[in-house]
Amino acid sequence: MFVIGIAGGTGSGKTTVVRKLIERLPKGEVAVLHQDSYYKDSSNVPVEDRQKINFDHPDAFDWPLLEQHLHTLRDGKSIEEPIYSYITCTRSNETVHIEPKEVVILEGIMALRDEKLREEMDLKVFVDADADDRLIRVIRRDIVERGRTAEAVMERYGRVLKPMHEQFIEPCKRYADVIIPQGGHNNAAINVMAKFIKQQLREQQQVANGEYRVI
């Protein structure tokens, strides 16, 4: 198994990078864990207070559960990934069944922040993008997917997203083995990364088959 952590700011293009990687890797052999699915359940918080939750702060995540699930996949066992609703700020009673695959990708704004998670990773990636480009993507996404107004998104960007990015997300670059500028538009970097992963998988298979020796 080859585990990849892909971090980067909100709207940096992480999802596009993941999609393009999957297209370039062996079909059916990639499992994706979404850090967004591991926000803490806020069903115990009054409805009027839920929209005040800072989703860009480390305290918003259920780190122990995420660590446990990634470790479980590493052990070759399946997991039930939570389903989180940004609208209600609660977890669904349903889950997503994920089987261990040859490649496991953990994608999220702070995928590289937690030391225990990093220890499980074979490759750590940071997706970088210009702040203005990220803001445009955030506005489009939040209006369409989360029912927010452009004004609300802009206000939240200045009050929460920008300072949290500078304090918690940008420093994750120091842990990255690979930094991809221009996000999902950087096909050259994605191609190089896909080739590297394929090579690592071949070497793992050779070792498993007793065909590979380090001299």
What does the model show?
By secondary structure, the chain is of the alpha/beta class. The chain has one domain: Rossmann fold (3-Layer(aba) Sandwich). The protein contains 7 helices and 7 strands. The protein has a 5-stranded parallel sheet with strand order 2-5-1-6-7, sandwiched between helices. It has a two-stranded antiparallel ribbon with strand order 3-4. β3 and β4 form a beta hairpin. α1 crosses α7 and α5 crosses α6. 33% of the residues are buried.
Tell me, what's the shape? globular
The CATH class label is Alpha Beta
Low-confidence stretches: none
Q: What's the count of strands?
A: 7
Mean pLDDT score? 87
Helix content: 40-55%
Q: Per CATH, what is the topology?
A: Rossmann fold
Topology as H/E string?
A: EHEHHEEEHEHHEH
Overall CATH architecture: 3-Layer(aba) Sandwich
Largest sheet: 5 strands, parallel
Kindly name the structural category.
alpha/beta
Fourth CATH level, the homologous superfamily: P-loop containing nucleotide triphosphate hydrolases
Total separate domains: 1
Radius of gyration, in angstroms, nearest whole number: 18 Å
Main β-sheet, spatial strand arrangement: 2-5-1-6-7
Distance separating the two termini = 23 Å
Q: Helical stretch count?
A: 7
DSSP strand (E) fraction? Answer: 15-25%
What's the SSE blueprint?
Blueprint: E1 2-8, H1 14-24, E2 30-34, H2 47-50, H3 63-74, E3 79-85, E4 90-98, E5 103-107, H4 115-120, E6 123-127, H5 131-145, H6 150-169, E7 178-180, H7 187-208
Helix pairs in contact: 1-7, 5-6
